[in-house]
């Protein structure tokens, strides 16, 4: 028993900077997933000792306000809001968050400008940003960002080209003046522990929570997660650099295969003069419109966008959020205890 208590104390010391920054019991953030990270899942994560984050996505200020108020009715613990920096009403969204005393605002989907960061901080909230490279991480810290998330290509949804394993080695040794949270492909507590020992302050997880009991995702969506292996979570393909496609990781399905065919057809029509370059690009960009909602809400997992990280292979059952978090903590504690046993074992 004392070994387990000592191991838990070690874990608590390792992620104390993250817990202190978030105001949570454990330094585990919920990844902001459109249509999924809403009042039910966000409040469940915070109530379980983690830190839930509302995915604002394309919400209007009025819709975001409604979601914040509903979430606050379901939890008295802190939670954050993820805002897309390219949103045309970003300033108003920040105002809504500040008016409702949101403690942390995550600025995602691009590089936030200094004015937005200053607005968040002057309003009394903490500003969190994403750093896909060391140089950008340092720049964001100079601009006033108070914490960073480094997300590897193993993650679900829109991803960059670099794995978390490499990003952690590139960034964690060099950014120590703000908390850095790791994300992408995380499905076990012992994996989280390995990054904490490298200097991370905590971890962000999405895929495990998307398939939780409290997630409002359709039963078909969750069943697709249960059937999937890591290799089934693939990124969308760009056929020609003439028409750039931001890679999105999700489960391989007919929708993804149709998207590849659509790109080929758009390229052919552009080359033949049937479409202008702008028309061809728009036809590609509009393909996925509403596709995530179709999968998450309507349960269309064949033609919809079933966004999932490579950790989907570790989703074996639909469980309550509190149980998921407790398991992650238990796995990390067990890993510490077993390591200490190995280190001190007689030769």
Automatic annotation (TrEMBL):
EC identifiers of the protein = 1.3.1.9
Q: Output the Pfam families linked to this UniProt entry.
A: NMO
- Which UniProt key words apply to this protein? Flavoprotein, FMN, Oxidoreductase
Q: Which SUPFAM superfamilies match?
A: Inosine monophosphate dehydrogenase (IMPDH) (SSF51412)
Q: What is this protein called?
A: Enoyl[acyl-carrier-protein] reductase
Domain of life where this protein originates: Bacteria
Gene3D superfamilies of this UniProt entry? Aldolase class I (3.20.20.70)
One GO MF annotation is:
enoyl-[acyl-carrier-protein] reductase (NADH) activity
